[in-house]
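Q: What structure does this chain adopt?
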Amino acid sequence: MTEWGAMSRTASPPLVVALSGGVDSAVAAARAAEAGFALTAVHLALSTPTSPAGYERAEQARTDAERVAAHLGLPFLVWDFRAEFAASVVAGFEAEYARGRTPNPCLTCNRTIKFGAVLDRALGLGFGGVVTGHYAIRVDRGGVAELHRGADPAKDQSYVLAVLGQDRLRHAYFPLGPSLKSAVRREAADRGLPVANRPDSSDICFIAEGNAATYLRERLGIAPGVIVDGDGTVVGGHDGTYGFTIGQRRGLRLGRPAGDGAPRYVVGLDPVTRTVTVGPHEALRVGRLWARDPIWMDEPPAGGFTGDVQVRAHAVPQPCHAAVESDRVRVDFDAPAYGIAPGQTAVLYDGTRVVGAMTIDSTGG
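A:
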């Protein structure tokens, strides 16, 4: 039984429901209210808009969140976490790209803000936890909270929630986990929620128009360098290694085509020498990865782990074997993997259950 289903039939302390102004959080709030929870709606101020369009979007989101709260008869608050968000999510995003790595800011936000600073404030004020519109399922088995994939494969967000750990997961509630997104949007319309027709947002929330390359150029400055082939031949130039990621094919603007006419991919980044290395697809082939700072949902798997690993938010899970070595984990793929970038997060799964998450440090043959 999902923890959501179990809790909805018992007395519990009041909960905070995070309202972004979108459809998912609105339906999550409606379901939680209908289940009998005492709720306070909270809209999070996370970033300071840097353009008129960005300011307008932020104001619209806050207004829409307030309209949903009024529709459901919920108290409405705005919690300002702009300083915390800038210090952890934004600064970490920029620092990782400057190091030639590829971070996922949504995981950092879930760990440090939504289920970090927000949850800490909620618990400190006497609330029992935080309700969100994430598509994931929490299951309670013998006093241990488990995180499982959401029912909708296209919307499953267990990957970006895998960094919560046991203590945080116990206070997290995901009413949308058992549902398909199509059903959630129909439900929003049936309930008359004022955001039922609002489109989904898929961009990084603090980057205007979703243009990460332009954002990083403005924040990190122009750092010109060369693009070289595997033999060191210069085949192009760039304004900063932060504009590239391992496995990238498009937007390279190479001045010299490959001798065999095959497409080339980014296979290496060196921000110190400002060098981007490109090569054939086969050069992206890896047989294993090493990761650091594992966060386990329960106890670390003793004697190794055999299951699946997912290395990007929408990547296909791949069979693997993992060996735990103190604060490092070695993951061996059953079949070759391609285009894995340091800085990304590797999440281990046992079927639909999240076992743990860790930051990829390096890869090898």
